[in-house]
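Possible regression after last week's pipeline update?

I re-ran a chain I had predicted before the update to compare outputs. Posting the input and the new output here so someone can diff against the archived version. Not blocking, just want to make sure nothing changed silently.
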Amino acid sequence: MSETMIGEAPREGSLEAPTRHPVEWKQPSFYDESSLFAELERVFDICHGCRRCVSLCNSFPSLFDLVDESDTMEVDGVAKQDYWKVVDECYLCDLCFMTKCPYVPPHEWNVDYPHLMLRAKAVKLKSGQTKVRDKILTATDKVGSLAGIPVVSQVVNAANKARGPRKVLDKVLGVHPDAILPEYHSKTLRKRLSGHQARAADAQQTANTRGKVALFATCYGNRNEPHIGEDLVAVFEHNGIPVSLVDKEQCCGMPKLELGDLEAVERAKNVNVPELLKWIERGWDIVAPVPSCVLMFKQELPLLFPDDPAVHKVKAAIYDPFEYLMLRHKDGKLNTDFKKSLGNVAYHVACHLRVQNIGLKTRDLLKLIPETEVEAIERCSGHDGTYAVKSEFHEASMKIAKPVVNRVKQMNADHYSSDCPMAGHQIENGLRDGREPEHPLTLLRHAYGI
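New output (post-update):
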């Protein structure tokens, strides 16, 4: 074979690190439906010929069923309107891009399935086809501020656990009666930390960290599970890392991103990024307790706003909590004086943590605890934040979660845990044995005996 022929041979996929192209969502062509359907057909045809992602979520089986049931048994036999069935099943976990697809850029076929689904969702929203239910579920700040009012929170929490009201919610809004819904706390993390004073002068800078942290609480961490933020503060300060709560925040924008509402994402960005940048310029690092929120600032916002220098400064300064603690450990600054063992821990690795490409830092840190065994479960829980609570998708979400649930059952572990609190509750829903998940920060605090 000649050198010329070798040079012209198509490149095999997945031989190079994947690269992500900016999302050109402000270009009018982004919302052109005919252009979108042409690209969907192109990518669906590639996926149909490969089928490596069939086990990840319900989007791919939906596509392959449509193809196999068509007259031609090819993508050209699938009605264009049925493409929306495939789009609706995608919840942007990113695992197909990061772990399975051999045709992602720099491959010449240039397949970015999650961001193509994002474009389709944005087109659907623009054309007025998005359900009111989905707009309500993704309005986390508004819903949280209302449901978090004293007395109201008690009523909401009680109703969310009662069979009668849940049947009504299913019929009226399309929220499945068996889905676990988050609790709302009137005593938010902001209220709990209102008198907290960080001793910034005690910060110990290392080669990899500045040693003082500004906490982006997240809407979920503030209103739904504020104890996780309290555990984070306790653990970090036990390690000599001063923690301050940022002065204000809105939802990171991930729920609106998954809806395709990119203008709402921009509005949230315009509040959050200047606030976080203020802390960074004062010499603080940023942490957030929910993987999806960290991923939003690390990956999605930089791709949506590639020319915004402030966005990229935040990208470089925001960390997953265990990523940060393991960087401190690398520099000899992690407190390893653990008082209690954890026994056996079934640890679910959240999708939006896996795709940050930082390794299994939570597992690695928990394994430092004496007499503690940690088994990582690298499968999707199928929750997504809203997908698992929707009436039409709940059963599919539980099917996706079943391999994770089965692993937890088989391990008969002393604790089960996930960095994503919603994924933890999805596992709880599958177990149905009365045990609740414990966040890794909660487990670490317990091991420290603080």
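Follow-up from reviewer: compared with the archived run. The chain has four domains: 18-126, 132-173, 189-327, 336-448. Marking as no regression found.
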